[in-house]
Design goal:
eight-stranded parallel beta barrel; about 40% helix; alpha/beta; three-stranded antiparallel sheet; TIM Barrel; 2 domains
Length: about 375
């Protein structure tokens, strides 16, 4: 059950009640692709980093260790010892981005595993079955992720197929949730809006999938090469045609600035690998700009990454020490950086929720963007 608590312009402050707990929105989902955060961050750590939801991937868990194994271990929550919500991506993006050789047919996609080359088939029913075995809180519908750029005709055909696949996903999800052997019989299903940068295709697709009365709706196929301005324009034009009383999820996005812009346009859910990936490469997000810790000027800097931050890293460790760990390729350096960046993102989402509640989101956004554009000292 999703409820809008208040609005500030188009920005929504909501709450989604799930079988695994409450999600306060807008929310950033921390990406734990194979059931773990990269950077040696444990689920116990995530509890201290204000994490509400983790996102894991259907395709990756299917090829390793295998979704049947996850089911035998009691589902992903039990397997990774995480008791809060989990969203599983359907595997569609990975099938279309990782699998070099693939055949797209009406029944689904035939492709080779990027791990060992074995032949795999995945269609709407298979994706739902895998996600049911994983027993995530929220399952994503299986869709085609068209390339960017794509011709109008290709995009239209692709979107039409995605709609047909979505109807099959819904039917299969209903069946799975009725079985006695299903671990999570309250699994939610989010549909995915596609259409590239073709505004009319996006809007028409949004209207069509809204009729299916799903638990939530996502915007897919963005942040794949189009400009930020194009992405914001598509969000602005499409979101009004998705049900306002359901969560809206912008997939794979993005930078703090991207999130602020999308919240202003009515988006609730976000995920991105940036905080973890950039952290592992020595880049820290701070309230005074982005910092490259590999810079020599931090060699003798005894300050925390961000003097305004209360994360476990900033409470104890200096820039100089973390820089040393990164240069020495010590795992602790990656862990401390990723921990800080995740805390930064989750804290920013708290600030966003608070600003919407107070009716001052526009002012908050302006100030935050100015801070993010500063040059870290």
């Amino acid at each position: 059950m999703y409820k809008i608590l208040c609005k500030d312009g188009s920005a929504k402050r909501g709450r989604l009640e799930t079988v695994h707990g409450t999600i306060e929105t807008p929310v950033f989902m921390n990406v734990a692709t194979v059931g773990a955060m990269k950077g040696a961050v444990s689920t116990e750590d995530l509890q201290h980093l204000k994490t509400q939801v983790v996102l894991s991937n259907t395709y990756h868990l299917h090829v390793r260790p295998g979704d049947e194994i996850v089911k035998k271990m009691g589902g992903l929550h039990k397997f990774m010892t995480w008791d809060k919500p989990i969203l599983t991506d359907s595997g569609g993006f990975q099938v279309f981005s990782l699998a070099g050789l693939r055949k797209i047919k009406e029944e689904g996609v035939y492709f080779n595993s990027h791990i060992d080359g074995r032949k795999i088939f995945m269609g709407p029913e298979q994706s739902m079955q895998i996600q049911s075995n994983i027993a995530s809180t929220i399952a994503m519908a299986f869709d085609e992720c068209p390339p960017h750029p794509a011709t109008r005709q290709y995009m239209q055909n692709s979107v039409d197929r995605t709609t047909r696949w979505l109807e099959r996903c819904k039917k299969e999800m209903d069946r799975l949730n009725s079985l006695d052997t299903t671990i999570n019989k309250s699994q939610l299903l989010f549909g995915i809006n596609q259409g590239g940068t073709f505004e009319d295709i996006r809007v028409e697709h949004a209207k069509r999938i809204s009729e299916l009365n799903l638990d939530g709706y996502a915007l897919g196929g963005l942040a794949v090469g189009e400009s930020h301005a194009e992405m914001y324009d598509i969000i602005e034009k499409t979101v009004p045609y998705l049900p306002e009383d359901k969560p809206t999820y912008l997939m794979g996005v993005g930078t703090p600035a991207n999130i602020l812009e999308a919240v202003e346009r009515g988006v609730d859910f976000f995920d991105c690998v940036y905080p973890a990936r950039n952290g592992r490469h020595g880049h820290a997000y701070t309230n005074h700009g982005k910092m490259n810790l590999m810079n020599k000027k931090y060699e003798l800097d005894d300050r925390p990454l961000d003097e305004t931050c209360d994360c476990p890293t900033c409470r104890k460790y200096s820039r100089a020490y973390i820089r040393h760990l990164l240069k020495a390729k010590e795992m602790l350096g990656l862990r401390l950086m990723v921990t800080h960046n995740l805390y930064f993102y989750n804290s920013m989402m708290e600030e966003i929720r608070d600003a919407i509640e107070k009716g001052c989101f526009k002012e908050y956004k302006k100030k935050k963007l100015e801070q993010l554009e500063e040059e870290a000292k």
